[in-house]
Amino acid sequence: MALDNLRTLYQQVILEHYKKPKHRGKTDPVDRRHRGHNPSCGDTIELTVQLDAAAGRIESVKFEGEGCAIAMASADLMADAMIGKTIAEAMDMTQAFQTMMKGEGEFPREHRKLNVMQGVAQFPVRIKCATLTWHTLKAALEQPTLAPIDEFVSNEETA
Ligand code: ZN
User: Fold this and answer.
1) Ligand 1 center from residue 37 Cα (angstroms)
2) What kind of fold does domain 3-154 have according to CATH?
3) What CA–CA distance (Å, rounded) separates 53 from 92?
4) Quick one: average pLDDT of 105-120?
5) Could you give the CA distance from residue 38 to residue 5 in angstroms, rounded to a whole number?
6) I need a surface site. Which of 25, 27, 59, 114 has the fewest CB within 10 A?
């Protein structure tokens, strides 16, 4: 496929997730929660996570917030990929996403949908938009219990 067509395809997938997110809202119950903010673009996000404690797996991730198409689409794609993952797997995927944003590597077939964000790596100012949801997820999962609602992670220092 020509590079231009490929770019258009990626943009379409991103816009589709932005306009028709599947994972917008709040989980019930809320087992983990965190807020994230990307000052350079103005994206804000609040993630809620439902855990299956017995199985040690993520049952559902949902997001609320306002932001650009890349930030919101990234949150929706991430939430989709997290269903049924262990916390360790989720942390590994967070790392893999950061690596992909450096232009190195991509996700295997099982999670190839996340690779639509690969194109963002070419636009350094938008990388923080794409990684915001992953930073926020990591912060939520690193907590042993439910965090107070006023805590939030800013990805400004990770520039
Ligand atoms: Zn943004």
Assistant:
1) 10
2) Sufe protein. Chain: A (3.90.1010)
3) 19
4) 92
5) 30
6) 25
Tell me what the mean pLDDT of segment 91-99 comes to: 97
For ligand 1, the distance from its centroid to the CA atom of residue 55, given in whole angstroms, is 35
Phi, psi of 108 (to 5 degrees): -70, 170
Separation of CA 126 and ligand 1 centre (Å): 6
- C-alpha of residue 128 to centroid of ligand 1, in Å: 7
How far does residue 115's CA lie from ligand 1's centre (Å)?
18
- Each domain of the chain, given as residue ranges in start order, spans 3-154
18 CA from centroid of ligand 1 (Å):
12
Q: Are 90 and 134 in contact (CB under 8 A)?
A: no
User: pLDDT grade, residue 106 (50/70/90)?
Assistant: very high
119 torsion bin: left (phi>0), alpha (psi -120 to 50), beta (else): alpha
pTM of the complete model = 0.89
Residue with tokens 């999962």: 141
